[in-house]
Amino acid sequence: MTGRRSIASLVIFVAIAATTACDRGGAVADPVAPSLEELSSATYTGIYDEAVTLVEGRWEGEPFVEGGASRPSAGLVDHFALIGDLDGDGREETTVLLWESSGGSGTRLYLAAMGRSHDDLEDLGTALVGDRVQVYSGRIADGRIELEVVQAGPGDAMCCPSQLATRGWTLGEDGLVEGETTITGTLSLDSLGGPEWVLSELGWGKPVSDTAEITISFDDDKVTGSGGCNRYFAAVAGDTPGQLAFAGMGTTRMACPESTMGLERNYLKTLSGASRYSFLGGRLVLSCDTDDGPIALIFTPREVSSGVPGSSG
User: Fold this and answer.
1) Using CA atoms, how far apart are residues 298 and 201, in angstroms rounded to an integer?
2) I want to staple 225 with a disulfide (CB 3.0 to 4.6 A). Which of 13, 21, 207, 215 is the partner?
3) Separation CA 185–CA 163 (nearest Å)
4) pTM for this prediction
5) Whether the Cβ atoms of residue 131 and residue 106 lie closer than 8 Å to each other
6) String of b and e for 181-193 (b: at least 16 CB within 10 Å)?
7) Beta partners for 169?
8) Is the distance from CB of 135 to CB of 109 less than 8 angstroms?
9) Are 288 and 298 in contact (CB under 8 A)?
10) What is the CA radius of gyration of the chain?
């Protein structure tokens, strides 16, 4: 009997110890960081006086004027997430970008840190990044959220930011707290160099087929890339921040299936009308003027094209 009591006591002790370790978060697997799918239907505070709950990544309020079309709205930048431990507890949180519009010409960008409390999502803090601020890239390093941004500098119109900066936030008791900003330069075509950009959408909300990869690379005053079948090349110029134009575009002359060739012709025709460039949550957006009206070409940098732009462990 003494032996049985000893075994029973040991089992109880181990169970209590495991429960205690679980409560402290030290001896069990850490919860998985919230996914973008979960966060597309999460509740966020700090944007308006009242919390907003997204439905399929979007929220809309009541019209400002009864029967009017203008109304407050907000949504998730659904391709951008930074994953990492923000509070040092060994568990990873997910940081996302949210946009907000109150019916005017501006669109404000917010940063939101989301964690997990048991089985529920937990809003840890939301911070305003700014009006019409563009995010080039992001990371989490040593518990600090860092964003490379394009923002309005001295003399810039709100529509056309040109100042490059690195900004950072840490998670405190009262939510996200922004630290010092480092100004890093002025937006130019040099900002497009470095990564190879892979086309993800030919027009907003119109993803391209994954059977043909379309790319573009910038190198000083030249661009090269693949249209899905042929290589193409052109000269590029842009004396004003955010503006560009292509000239002398040419291609190789390989033959591919008509579906691929049709996509390539459509892309190159659209690309030839490019007049502006900007960044959205780590993606490059080329705004193009075409006979059918303005069309956007949206690219993802090669190094994160198979994952989440800007994600960091």
Assistant:
1) 5
2) 215
3) 6
4) 0.84
5) yes
6) eeeeeebbbebbe
7) 145, 178
8) yes
9) no
10) 24
